[in-house]
Amino acid sequence: MRVLGARMSASGFAARGTLLLSLLFVGVTTATAQPSLGACFSTDAGTSLDLRIDACTSFIQSKGLSQDRLAIAFQNRGSAYVAKGDTDRAIQDFDQAIKLDPKYANAFNSRGIAYQAKGDNERAIQDYGPAIQLDPANANPLNGRCWVRAALGQLQTALTDCNESLRLRPNSSNTLDSRAFVYIRLGRWNDAIADCDAALRANPTNAYALFERGFAKRHNGDLAGGDKDIAASRTIDPNAEMEFSGFGVRL
Fold first, then answer.
1. For 146-251, CATH number?
2. Cα 154 to Cα 247: distance, rounded to the nearest angstrom
3. 28: helix, coil or strand?
4. CB of 173 within 8 A of CB of 200?
5. What share of the chain is helix, strand, coil (3-state, %, to 5)?
6. Which of 247, 179, 244 minimizes the C-alpha distance to 215?
C-alpha cells in the first residue's frame, strides 16, 4: 500500500497506510483561489509536491487562518513531505496539526505513516490507535496497523485489524497483501496465495502481492510458479523484496 498511492522509497513511502489530503475552503474555494495557493488543498495526484509545500507554507505564514484550517494546512504540507521522503519535517507538521486539533484523525494516521517510514513501528502503532478511535469507519489506519503489527510479530491482532479493514473496504489490493503478509508469517501458505490472487485481481501491478505469492508458492512446493511471480515483482518494484527481507521474509 502506498502513501499518496505509493510505498517505501526515496521519493515516496510505500508503507502499509495511506496518506489522505484534507479539503478546505478558506473564504475562496480552491477553484477560484490563485493556482499556487490552491495547490495546498488540491486532491489532484498530479499536483507538484514542491508546489503543494509552497502553497501550504504561504497559508501557514499568512496567519489569517482559523485554528482548524491551519491544522489542515499543516496536515497537507506534512503529507507532501512524506511523499518526498522527508519524514522528520513531516512529523513536525503533523505534530502541529494535532496540537491545533487533537481530534484530527487524518493527522494521527499520517503521523503513524511517517513514523512507519522511519522504521519506528512501535511509535506508528501509537498513532494508528487514536486515528482508529477517532474515525472507526476509516479502513486506512486499520490497514497500517495490521502491517506494522505483522512486522512486529503481533500476528493475531494484526489479523483482526486486516479483517476489519477489509470489512470496511472489501477487495482493497493493499489490505489484501497486508493480510497475506500476516498469513505468510503464520505459515498459512494457501490463505496467503488466495489473498494475493485477490490483491492482484484488483491491482495486477502490486509488486508486494506478487512477491508474497511467489514466496508462498515456493513454500507450497511450486518452485516454478513462485520464481515467476518473484521475477515479476522484481521487475515492477525491487524495493518490495528488500522490504520483506528486512522483516525476515527471505528466499
1. 1.25.40.10
2. 13
3. strand
4. yes
5. 65, 0, 30
6. 244
What pTM does this model have?
A: 0.85
Amino acid identity of 142?
A: L
pLDDT tens, position by position, for the chain (251 residues)? 433 333 333 223 333 345 656 654 344 343 444 547 788 888 888 889 999 999 999 989 988 778 888 999 999 999 999 999 999 999 999 999 999 999 999 999 999 999 999 999 999 999 999 999 999 999 999 999 999 999 999 999 999 999 999 999 999 999 999 999 999 999 999 999 999 999 999 999 999 999 999 999 999 999 999 999 999 999 999 999 999 999 889 98
Tell me which of 3.40.1550.10, 3.30.360.10, 1.25.40.10, 1.10.8.60 is the CATH number of domain 1-135.
Answer: 1.25.40.10
- Let me know the angle formed at the C-alpha of 182 by 200 and 138, rounded to the nearest 5 degrees: 75
Residue 48 has a CB neighbour count (10 Å cut-off) of 13
Give the span between the Cα atoms of 158 and 116, in whole angstroms.
15
